[in-house]
Design a protein that fits this description.
This protein is of the alpha/beta class. It has four domains: 128 residues, Response regulator (Rossmann fold), CATH 3.40.50; 139 residues, Reverse transcriptase/Diguanylate cyclase domain (Alpha-Beta Plaits); 104 residues; 95 residues, Arc Repressor Mutant, subunit A. The protein is 60% helix and 11% strand. It contains 24 helices and ten strands. The strands form two sheets. A five-stranded parallel sheet has the order 2-1-3-4-5, with helices on both faces. Helix 2 packs parallel to helix 3, helix 14 runs antiparallel to helix 15 and helix 22 crosses helix 23. The termini are far apart. One of its GO terms (molecular function) is sequence-specific DNA binding. Its main location: cytoplasm.
Length: 541
């Protein structure tokens, strides 16, 4: 059963569509009807329906503007436009917004039923196409040659020189990368309700089904994709324009992949987005950033898009050791608990004891661990914040111990101090970004075009992660907080000036005075006029 909503400012149209159509009989659940695009957009952000049927001409936000927002944030939602305007320019604009259909009013109940059947057939066909494992098995045999995948894996994991990159790209007929590139890594969380009970090789078909979605969506943004030996899915997005635009494209791509895999395959993936690098030779730095973002799955849960910029800010690039124990320990230090880190130290020291390697080898191993921890601090703690841990002393202290047991106790203390430093910085970074966001809102509240995207660009955060931490810090969504600031400013103007209500509405960021009055009454419990009258009565004027 697919979810649908109706958006039309004419109540008779909404009532007619609700009562004359057997929605369930056509495969749809009608989850709501709305009189304007703005209310509908709030519902879409919360419920994410599969189909939106909308009029064009409506107050506050028209149908074409609503279709544009849907296409930008949720491209998988189908949109049908109903309109009484038989003009070519409206149809042209609807086509540019990639709406599913453009229908002229008046439309009969029979035509609506046929339209619903057509849309349902398209959705069923798409679902069937994605779930047809026999088709995917056939495509698996025709997938990209293994040499191409291994080359791309070496490109992001190890790094290659300019000459080899040029030769290999030409050999594999790959499009050249622009000056800016970013790596995206997707990892299957688990198979959810599709746990494998019969044949082990079915797991490969499910992985290939996920990669098929990953690859199909990548074609729309001209991304290079491949699978690693660890069965992760990697995409390289490139673009010579503004970095914010490239990040926006990366987040939209990752979110669409995450949504489609959950919807059509019934299991989930977590996706990490790295930092933008200026040349193909530097892709390993972006790839490592995407892998580090994936490590935060432990903190934030499965089925998410995680950006290394959101989680660790924008540090200077620093090389990371490649030893397995080093990496596991650093990953745990960043995202795990002190107990988990100490358990890992105990296992590592025990392995060294069992190996019976020379004492100098043990010291070198410990130095490499300490260097990894120092790099973790440099990545996460900005240079303008003084770290409480003396890195040079950390390196020198290794040699003052006489047993691995003493080194183990010391390393546990060092790790505890590092984890405290990283946690303090993470809180500082998030608090700083939220403080900047609040300052931006309170400075620009009068701009009626201000959006969540504008705010996130200003504080350099993705919209999904910003919404999460902003709600945690303020107990309100961006829209709720902005509305609160605007209404508070309006109250000040109502008390201290004799400005007309429409002038006050414009001063606090509302181009529509009627919408301002609705929001004011919703927040203050009375209309602007009643509020001013009450103030006058209380002051005895």
């Amino acid at each position: 059963m697919y979810k649908a909503i109706i958006v039309d400012d004419e109540a008779v149209v909404r009532v007619g569509l609700k009562n004359t159509i057997d929605w369930a009989g056509h495969g749809f659940e009608l989850t709501g009807d709305y009189a304007n695009g703005r209310d509908a957009w709030e519902a879409i952000e919360q419920d994410k329906p599969d189909l939106v049927i909308s009029d064009i001409s409506m107050p506050f936000m028209d149908g074409l503007e609503l279709a544009g927002l849907i296409g930008g944030s949720y491209p998988y939602i189908k949109v049908i436009i109903l309109t009484g305007y038989d003009e070519f320019e409206y149809a042209q604009q609807a086509l540019r917004l990639k709406v599913s259909d453009f229908v002229l009013k008046p439309i009969t109940a029979r035509e609506i039923r046929q339209l619903l059947d057509k849309v349902r057939a398209e959705m069923d066909e798409e679902r069937q196409r994605r779930e047809d494992l026999s088709r995917l098995q056939s495509q698996l045999k025709q997938s990209l040659p293994i040499l191409r995948e291994r080359f791309l894996e070496r490109l992001v994991a190890v790094g290659l020189g300019t000459a080899e990159i040029g030769d290999r790209f030409a050999y594999f007929n790959l499009p050249p990368l622009s000056s800016g590139s970013v790596a995206i890594v997707a990892d299957i969380d688990d198979f959810g309700d599709r746990e494998l009970l019969s044949y082990e090789h079915d797991a490969e078909f499910l992985r290939f089904a996920a990669f098929d979605i990953f690859e199909e969506i990548a074609e729309r943004v001209d991304a290079l994709v491949f699978r690693t030996r660890e069965e992760r899915m990697v995409a390289i997005l490139t673009g010579a324009g503004d970095e914010n635009d490239l990040y926006d494209t990366a987040f939209r791509y990752a979110e669409e992949v995450r949504h489609h895999i959950e919807k059509f395959l019934s299991f989930t993936v977590t996706i990490g987005v790295g930092r933008i690098v200026s040349s193909p030779e530097m892709l390993p730095a972006s790839y490592k950033g995407a892998l580090s973002a994936l490590d935060y799955r432990f903190l934030h849960g499965k089925n998410r898009v995680l950006s290394i910029l959101d989680l660790e800010g924008q540090p200077e690039a620093a090389p990371m050791p490649s030893l397995s124990w080093d990496r596991k320990l650093v990953s745990t230090v960043k995202t795990g608990s002190i107990r988990e880190a100490q358990d890992l130290i105990e296992h590592g020291i025990a392995a060294l004891k069992q190996s019976r390697v020379p004492i100098e080898t043990c010291f070198l191993q410990m130095q490499k661990v300490v260097l990894s921890l120092m790099n973790a601090i440099q990545e996460v703690v900005p240079h303008d914040r003084e770290a409480s841990i003396d890195s040079q002393m950390m390196l020198m202290e290794v040699y003052r111990f006489k047993t691995l047991g003493e080194i183990e106790d010391w390393l546990k203390q060092v790790v505890s101090a590092v984890m405290t430093e990283i946690a303090d910085n993470r809180n500082h970074l998030t608090n700083t970004q939220i403080h900047r966001a609040i300052e931006y809102i309170e400075t620009n509240y009068a701009n009626h075009t201000m959006s969540l995207q504008d705010l996130c660009r200003h504080v350099h955060m993705s919209t999904s992660y910003f919404s999460l931490v902003f709600k945690q810090h303020t107990s309100e969504t961006f829209v709720e907080y902005l509305t609160g600031v605007r209404i508070a400013k309006a109250k000040e103007l109502l008390q201290s000036t004799s400005m007309k209500f429409y002038e006050i509405a414009e001063q606090v960021g509302y181009a529509d005075p009627n919408y301002f009055s609705i929001l004011f009454k919703k927040r203050a419990g009375m209309t602007p006029k009643d509020y001013r009258d009450r103030l006058a009565k209380e002051s005895g004027i």
